[in-house]
Amino acid sequence: MAVALRLWTGSILSRGRTLFVGLTIATIAACSPGGVTGPRNEIPTNVPGVPAGTELATAKTSFEAGNFGYAARYFQMALDAAPNDMEACLGLAASYDWLHRFDLSDRTYSTCRTIGGETFAYHNNVGFSYILRGEYGRASVSLAQARTLQPGHPVIETNLRILRDVSSG
Length: 169
Prior knowledge:
The N terminus is likely disordered. Helix 7 packs antiparallel against helix 8. The chain has one domain: Serine Threonine Protein Phosphatase 5, Tetratricopeptide repeat. The relative contact order is 0.15. It is mainly alpha-helical and 169 residues long. It is built from nine helices and two strands; from the N terminus they run ααββααααααα.
């Protein structure tokens, strides 16, 4: 089984590790010299309602299942309920990344930076977003910033290996 690719926040490090297990193969297969190839998934207009306070948990479950459109909607609901929740914000941006909606992920990462600053998790996720886009130089800069904030962190080291693999191929 593959190791974790990235995480949302340091406060959920162990959860973040399991959240991205198994996605390494899909990521490497999806990356090409010109960026990500493959279908763009749609964001549903409506999603089933969930009890108040469970939006974030539902978003994580949807994300783990690869239902990134649903995850995006539930992360947005969680962020609407708690506008300063960095975990919900980074989860929303990551969902947009996997949907190849980089226009939306860029705006959301800007919101994340406003909420929590330029943290390890922020730079790590932005760096991974650039990998998905095929923007390897920018990915390298963001991942280097994350590495500076958390030297030797296994998620960063994995992402840097992925970057080396996809950018040299």
